[in-house]
Specification:
By secondary structure, the chain is an all-alpha fold. The chain is 76% helix and 2% strand.
Length: 288
């Protein structure tokens, strides 16, 4: 009886928080779903409550839709590759004893706590600025013309900015996995004459596989909604318009709430498909 009573009390105490959370999540989603079937353009004083699937058809058949999907996938894949490879290398480096190890770890993890807008502004003005940026001064120092990264290599520039911010997260997860590796296995392999590369490939990397899949899952879910870095640096120009930014343009710049809402629902559906697919992969990997 005491156990059942405590469970009922726990459910009663968390019920308000669950209710607020559901309302916070469901109300915007329901409103977006409602507007996606309406012709709602405030600047033209147009509001037709039901036009069927016209908004979905217009969004899916637009020339910008497929290009935004391709840009999103290219960005996410590139950022994942940089953060995973860099995270593994940094995790192995930080696991070794060094002077000021705690301070070094804090400095490596610090970029993750910087807001995306702030990090994008820092990179745009301090590094990529063609007139006063650090890279421009380096080009001039070596006798070369300054290079405008944001207009000539816009996708690469945004990938670098976002990867710089997410690299600490991958490093932290992978460092935890590296520290859980038994040192006896590595010592035994070293005593048997296995070179460092073989020890990494056959012992360390398989041990990190679960942590890597978790990093891929979490980062992919967040990276599918890249927006702030694009808004601050290129404003969607030069082929940097992702699916999220395309929805923003349809809602705010074109003032077509119905079309943008349809795009938002499509983005949510695609993101959930990707998340379910990745969760299945993670689940299989964790079961092995």
């Amino acid at each position: 009886m005491a156990t059942e009573h405590s469970r009922s009390s726990a459910r009663l105490m968390i019920a308000p928080a669950v209710f607020v959370l559901l309302v916070w999540m469901l109300v915007p989603l329901i409103m977006t779903l409602y507007f996606s079937f309406a012709d709602y353009r405030p600047l033209r004083a147009t509001f037709e409550t039901w036009i069927g699937f016209d908004n979905y058809a217009s969004f899916l058949t637009s020339s910008s839709f497929l290009s935004s999907i391709g840009t999103t996938l290219w960005m996410v894949g590139s950022i994942l590759m940089i953060t995973i490879v860099g995270g593994v290398l940094l995790a192995l480096l930080l696991d070794r004893p060094m002077f000021g190890q705690g301070i070094v770890r804090i400095l490596v993890i610090a970029p993750f706590f910087v807001m995306p807008t702030v990090s994008a502004l820092v990179w745009k003005n301090m590094f990529f600025n063609v007139d006063n940026g650090l890279f421009s001064y380096l080009f001039k120092f070596f006798g070369a013309q300054p290079f405008d990264f944001l207009s000539q290599l816009p996708l690469f520039s945004i990938v670098v900015i976002v990867a710089w911010q997410w690299l600490p997260f991958a490093t932290l997860i992978l460092l935890t996995a590296v520290q859980s590796l038994s040192s006896e296995q590595l010592e035994a392999a070293e005593m048997d004459g296995a070179p460092a590369l073989s020890r990494f490939w056959y012992i360390i990397l398989p041990h990190l596989s679960r942590a890597i899949t978790v990093v891929i899952l979490i980062q992919t879910i967040f990276l599918l909604s890249i927006f702030a870095e694009i808004f601050v640096t290129t404003n969607g120009a030069f082929g940097t318009r992702t699916l999220t930014y395309l929805v923003y343009q349809r809602v705010l710049e074109s003032q077509n709430i119905g079309l943008g809402s349809a795009g938002g629902i499509i983005a949510v559906i695609l993101a959930n498909i990707v998340a379910i697919f990745l969760m299945r992969i993670v689940g299989k990997n964790l079961d092995n």
